[in-house]
Amino acid sequence: MMIDDLDFAFDEHDDRGRHRRGRAPQRSSKKKKKKKKGRSVFALLLTFLLLGGLGLGGYIGYKEFTERFTTPDYAGQGLEETAQVEIKTGATQADIANALHKADIIKSPKAFVEAGLRNEDALKIQPGFYKLRKQMSGDAAVTALLDPKNRVVNGVTIQEGLITLEIFALLSKELNIPVEDFKKAAEDPVKLGVPEWWFTRKDGKPVTKSIEGFLFPATYEFAPKETAESALKKMVNKFNTVVGQLKFADRAQNERKISPLEALITASIVEAEVNKADDMPKTSRAIYNRVYNNDLWQRGMEVDAAFNYKFKLDGKDPKHSNELLRSELNNASNPYNTYRNKGLTPTPIGNPGENALKAAIDPAVGKFIYWVAVDQQGTTLFAETDSQHCANINIGIKNGFLASSARC
Q1: Considering only Cβ atoms within 10 Å of each terminal Cβ, which end of the chain, N or C, has fewer?
Q2: Number of DSSP helices (H) and strands (E) in the chain, helices first
């Protein structure tokens, strides 16, 4: 009874139920499930969209976080494309990092600096030119700079004692720059970095401005597109650095009581006269005794190496002391004739190295006025008197190094 009443009531209020009577309740149940299923699908879709939105926002937030708080860095060993970069003398890790970043070798300076902190050998990176892959990681860049194979070596060694013309010829050959370019660049030493105060003397002789003596002998790495002026500036800069470390100018004036230029001229003569570093302090003392001590010496300095300097300037071959002609010894018009002209030469007679520079400001103690090489090995003997000097000459004659005509 109740079921019929319910059926009737359903049919009375729903035409669709009346047509599908007896099955209407079941259809109604499926409809409800379908509605529920639709709601569930919608809710699930909405959930996915919401989660997707959160995921996208999270990704963007993560990306911003990593970009802000992590170091931008390339990965791996870099591209096939390469770039050349110069690591300058005295460059800090930050300087190197900036140079690499500018050349797109690393993604950020911080990447290289942090890599350097992880690799204790990073402090061993040497100045010079390097050919490196672009877009490599900071760690890879540090490793590459420590590998000698990546250095672009264009090194030129300047030996001690060479005169400027010999240096110009050597640089011309190695750098493919005309000698005339070096001569022109050398016309103004001050422009190349020699301080103006170098060109003063206390010995009363006129000053001759010259680049001679200021081209420090060392091994240099020059840029692929080096100019004559920039090459000479590097050498002068090296000279300034070395003499600064030695306190050369101050010691020359305060201890030797002479101008720095006079001390430099002395160093160049020492470099030309003896081969061994141990002999240099005695040689500088002998030169000072001849030039500045009238109680020990009243003649000219009588240094044969000065003749050879003038021969080279004139395009002539140098001579051994035994080969000098009397006419050459008597030629007072030669400003580098140290027999007829007293005192030091007008300019340095070559470019001295560090040992000769040290000897000029720290000469040995003694009354040495003579020195003579007595064998092929460059052994030099010193004397304070004529008789001692003659004995030393006889040793050189006995060794076959000096001609018998040199006998006292």
Answers
A1: N
A2: 16, 7
CB 227 within 8 A of CB 206: no
Residue 261 has pLDDT above 90, yes or no: yes
Give, in order, the Cα–Cα distances in Å from 342 to each of 42, 51, 123, 299: 112, 99, 52, 7
- Higher-pLDDT residue of 165, 129: 165
Report the DSSP beta bridge partners of residue 128: 87
Q: Are the C-beta atoms of residues 372 and 283 closer than 8 Å to each other?
A: no
In a domain, 382, yes or no: no
User: Angle at CA 26, nearest 5°, toward 24 and 29?
Assistant: 110
The domain that holds 121 is classified in CATH as 3.30.1490.480
Please give the radius of gyration of the chain, using alpha carbons only, rounded to the nearest integer. Answer: 43
Residue 377 counted as domain residue: no
Estimate to the nearest angstrom the gap between the alpha carbon of 385 and the chain centroid.
47
Asked if residue 408 is part of any domain, the answer here is no
Tokens of 379: 């052994």
What integer pLDDT is reported at residue 153 of this predicted model? Answer: 73
Quick one: pLDDT at residue 100? Answer: 96
Distance CA 273, CA 263 (A): 15
Q: In the 8-state DSSP scheme, what is residue 155?
A: E
The pLDDT score that the predictor gives to residue 383 is 97
- Answer yes or no: do 176 and 111 share one domain: no
Does a structural domain hold residue 306? yes
Q: Count of domains in the chain?
A: 3
Q: Produce one character per residue of 75-100: b if its CB has 16 or more CB atoms within 10 Å, e if not.
A: eeebeeeebebbbeeeeebeebbbbb
Tell me, yes or no, whether 291 and 149 share the same domain. Answer: no
Q: Which of 243, 257, 250, 220 is nearest to 356 (CA)?
A: 243
Domain of residue 109: give its range: 82-153
Is pLDDT at 24 greater than 80 in this prediction? no
DSSP SS3 for 153? coil
Q: What average pLDDT score do residues 269-284 get?
A: 97
Rounded to 5 degrees, φ, ψ at 185 are -65, -30
